Amino acid sequence: MLLLFVARLWQLQVVQYEQYATRSQGNYLRTETILAPRGRIFDRNGRVIATNRLAVDLLYVGGEVQFKDRLLALTGLKALPEAGREPVELMVNIPEALVPTLAELTAGEPNLKLLERIERVYPNPIAGPVIGYTALPSQEQLKEGYEPEELVGASGLEAALEPQLRGVKGVVLAEVNARGQRVRFEEIKEPQAGTDVYLTLDLNLQQAAEQALQEAVADINRIRQRYGLPLVSRAKGAIVALDPRSGEVLAMATAPAFDPNLFGRRPRPNDKIRELFADKDRPTLNRAVNAYPPGSTYKLASSSMALESGYVTANTAFRCSPYIVFGGIRRNWAKVDMGMMTVKEAIAQSCNTWYYQVAMLDPIGMVNKLHKRALELGLGRPTGLEIGEQTGIVPTLQWKKQNIPKDPRWWPGETLSIMIGQGYNKATPVQIARMLATIAQNGQQPELHLVRRIGNQEIKRPTTLVSGRYWRELQEGMRKTVTWGTARHVLGDFPVATAGKTGTAQNESLTPGLEHAWYMGYGPTDPTDPRPPLVVVAFFENGGEGSGVALPAAKKVMAAYWKVGQPLALR
Predict the structure, then answer these.
(1) In b/e form, how buried is each residue of 430-452, taking b as 16+ CB within 10 angstroms?
(2) Which has the closest alpha carbon to 554: 295, 253, 333?
């Protein structure tokens, strides 16, 4: 018997030593992952928009615990809950002052555990649809290597910049006792934080734009009262401001919006999140990159096409009559005869009948020419932004055949509609902003972007040259809009010389007072003015009149940027 025991002992300790030594070591050594913090997001001046904080949760796995009464008093619980296979959270986001006390109570407790995790916070939040939010990984992302508690960009810039913002997780080799508690650990691989990103946005101007959207509610309701329509409590719209030289977006505001901190909280307020996604006003939609009928802002593309294609010259004049007859009566917005106008006056007074008469010169032949020129100016195609954007619609004869099979023929009257930005046309506020930047800079077209720097790497985007001979005529027409035309009542006495175009776009409702409201403006137009150039586009879904709603909002953003007039009190 003794010989048998000795032989077995020799077999275990000598012959099978490698096998059992490895298994034994695996019983007390384990590899653990350390999550890396996401890169921070700053505005162009270094103000924090998104950062991280260390959060601590108290977990309970079931069974008896010492100091139970004291633990219940600290957590505010009446009794310890039932615990199944998964640990139960006793306290989430423990206040910093309580962490040392709970660490002392849980020391040596096999049934209690303090869990550290990284939480995304937005100390200076901008509109949620723009900055986006983070969430826990999906099943597919877990298969791709994400950890269950790792944060992933789920929308907006957080999602678009995920490769840069995501850090590299670290690894530690931990020694644990029989209860599974850490005794000591050795760091094998240090976690690497994600790369910090600096945006082109100016937080002050962003806040001014968001405030202008909120304040527009009073103007919208003034128009609604006039038409006997229900009043609203919040605006639906967007404001985009950019530097036309570089294409840097200085502000991108959208309303209604949401606070991205809503998605970073633990426990997650699921009821509020469900309400957010069920809201009929769609606060998760970034209206700055969504396509809408552009209305009279599109007349700049029509004017450019008509001039460059030779349909009109700078001196060609048509009467701005209250209506014309072409397959029915087509009316101007003004009910009086406004006299003879060239393209400059037609832009300034937004004369529909002037553009109708141009369209009548070649109602079928100019459709594809208008498409080509609109695309050259930046409509109907992406602007270069890092976030997703709709391309809009700039129709052609072939487009109608493919998309409207029930009525594939292009009718001459449809050309009259698209000339004034109605009909099938759709454009996004950022596309309108790039078109205006192109015209303001005599054809120098910037590629728009929201990211200025990734880590130490500066981001530069290309500028292309759009051919054209009539930039001055378009610029002078928009200057006349401010000094003599549809924007004079708001910007006529503004301290900075600007130019622009109002727009009121009919939509599917066809209800007076529910039109989409637009204004696009830029300045300074005085070449001796030392102020930095700015392009602003304001859009309001079902806002009513462009000159009554979008124009005052754009003025507030200009005032805040150039610090003139009555700038907004920035929050």
Answers:
(1) bbbbbbbbbbbbebbbbbbbbbb
(2) 253
Q: 34 has which bridge partners?
A: 170
Written as one letter, the residue type at 96 is: E
CB 479 within 8 A of CB 499: yes
pTM of the model: 0.89
A 10 A CB-CB count for 532 gives: 12
Q: Is the pLDDT of residue 7 over 50?
A: yes
Q: What is the DSSP string of 248-269?
A: BEEEEEEES---GGGGT-SS--
Instruction: Find out whether the peptide bond into 267 is cis, omega within 30 degrees of 0.
Output: yes
Say what the pLDDT of residue 116 is. Answer: 82
Measure the CA–CA gap between 22 and 125, rounded to whole angstroms. 51
Contact 259, 313 (CB under 8 A): no
Q: In degrees, to the nearest 5, what angle opens at C-alpha 356 toward C-alphas 354 and 361?
A: 105
378/22 Cα distance (integer angstroms): 65
CB atoms under 10 Å from CB of 27, counted, come to 9
> Residues in the chain, how many?
571
- What are the two backbone dihedrals, phi and then psi, of residue 54, each rounded to the nearest 5 degrees? -85, 120
* φ, ψ dihedrals at 299, nearest 5°: -65, -20
Which residues lie below 8 Å from residue 463, measured CB to CB, with a gap of 6+?
A: 246, 247, 444, 445, 446, 447
pLDDT at 202 exceeding the cut of 90: yes
| Nearest of 54, 55, 99 to residue 75 by alpha carbon | 99
pLDDT in tens, 27-45: 556 677 788 899 999 999 9
Q: What is the pLDDT of residue 382?
A: 96
Q: Residue 417: in which H helix or E strand, if any?
A: helix 412-419
pLDDT of residue 187: 63
The pairing of beta strand 170-176 with beta strand 152-153: unpaired
- Coil, helix or strand for 495? coil
Kindly tell me the burial class for residue 157, based on how many C-beta atoms sit within 10 Å of its own C-beta (0-12, 13-18, 19 or more).
buried
Question: Residue 544: what are its φ and ψ, rounded to 5°?
Answer: 105, -120
DSSP line for 256-307: S---GGGGT-SS--HHHHHHHHH-TT-TT--GGGS-B--GGGGHHHHHHHHH
Averaged pLDDT for residues 207-214: 97
Distance of CA 195 to the CA centre of its chain: 21
Predicted pLDDT at 273: 92
In this prediction, residues 324-339 reach a mean pLDDT of: 91
The burial of 314, by beta-carbon neighbours within 10 Å (0-12 exposed, 13-18 middle, 19 or more buried), is given as: middle
Tokens 């310890």, residue? 80
Q: Check pLDDT > 50 for residue 356.
A: yes
Judge if the upstream peptide bond of residue 256 is cis by omega within 30 degrees of 0: yes
Each as own residue / partner, the long-range contacts of residues 490-496 (CB below 8 Å, 24 or more positions apart, any chain) are 490/547, 490/551, 490/552, 490/555, 491/521, 491/551, 491/555, 494/555, 494/558, 494/559, 494/564, 494/565, 495/562, 495/564, 495/565, 496/523, 496/524, 496/529, 496/531, 496/558, 496/562, 496/564
Contacts of 130 (CB under 8 A, 6+ apart): 156, 157, 252, 253, 254, 257, 286, 288, 387
